[in-house]
Q: What sequence folds into this?
C-alpha cells in the first residue's frame, strides 16, 4: 500500500508536538516521557535495555536519564556489577507519571473519538507488527 508511511509521518509530528506541549507543564519532553513510561511499564531497567527497546544510542539514553535524575524523577539502584546502571522511578516520578498518564489518556480519547472500536483494535495490533517487520528487515541489512 503506497503512501502508508507518508500518512504515518503526517500523524507523527503533530502528535509529538501535542505531547511535548502537554508535558511542558512538568518540564518534560516526549523523549524523557518515553523513558519514564518504559520504566513504569517494565520496572527497574538498565540503560542498555531501554536503549535497545527504543533503538536509541546508549549515550542519548544516559543523558536523558541524568536529566530525569536531576528532576528527582529517577534514581539509580545497585546492579549485579558496578558498571551496570539500573534505574527506577522515585516516588516523585510515580506521581508525575500518574498525572501525565491521565492527561495523555484524555488526549488519546480526544483524538481517537469517532473512530470505531474495531478499527482502533486493528491498529493497536498491526502497528507493533509493522515495527517488528521493520526491525527484522534492519537486522537483515547489517
A:
Amino acid at each position: 500500500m503506497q503512501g502508508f508511511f507518508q500518512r504515518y509521518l503526517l500523524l507523527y509530528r503533530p502528535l509529538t508536538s501535542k505531547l511535548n506541549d502537554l508535558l511542558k507543564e512538568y518540564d518534560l519532553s516526549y523523549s524523557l516521557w518515553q523513558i519514564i513510561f518504559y520504566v513504569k511499564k517494565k520496572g527497574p531497567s538498565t540503560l542498555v535495555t531501554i536503549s535497545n527497546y527504543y533503538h536509541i544510542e546508549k549515550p542519548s539514553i544516559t543523558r536523558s536519564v541524568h536529566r530525569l535524575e536531576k528532576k528527582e524523577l529517577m534514581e539509580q539502584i545497585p546492579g549485579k556489577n558496578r558498571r551496570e546502571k539500573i534505574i527506577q522511578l522515585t516516588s516523585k516520578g510515580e506521581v508525575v507519571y500518574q498525572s501525565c498518564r491521565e492527561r495523555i489518556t484524555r488526549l488519546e480519547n480526544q483524538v481517537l473519538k469517532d473512530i470505531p472500536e474495531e478499527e482502533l483494535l486493528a491498529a493497536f495490533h498491526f502497528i507493533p507488527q509493522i515495527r517488528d517487520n521493520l526491525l527484522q528487515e534492519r537486522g537483515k541489512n547489517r
